[in-house]
Amino acid sequence: MDAAAVILVVLLFVVAFVWGLILMLQKRQPWGLRVLGGVMALVSAVPVGGLVFLVHLLCTTNLTKGRVLRLRGRTRVARRALGAGWADDAVPDVSGLTPWQRTVLGEVWMYSAGLEHASVPAFSKLSLKLSALGAPSELLEDCHLAALDEIRHARRCFALASAYSGVGWTAGTIPELGQGSTPPSPMDSGDTWARLVRGSLLDGCLAEGMASLVAGEGASRASDPVVRETLSVISEDEGRHAELAWDVIAFALQRGGRRAKDALRQALLALESQQTPALPRIPGVDEDFLARNGVLPQVELGRLMAVCIARTRARAEALLAPSNLSMRSGPSDFQGVPAASSRDAVPVEAAPRC
Question: 61-344 maps to which CATH number?
Answer without folding.
Answer: 1.10.620
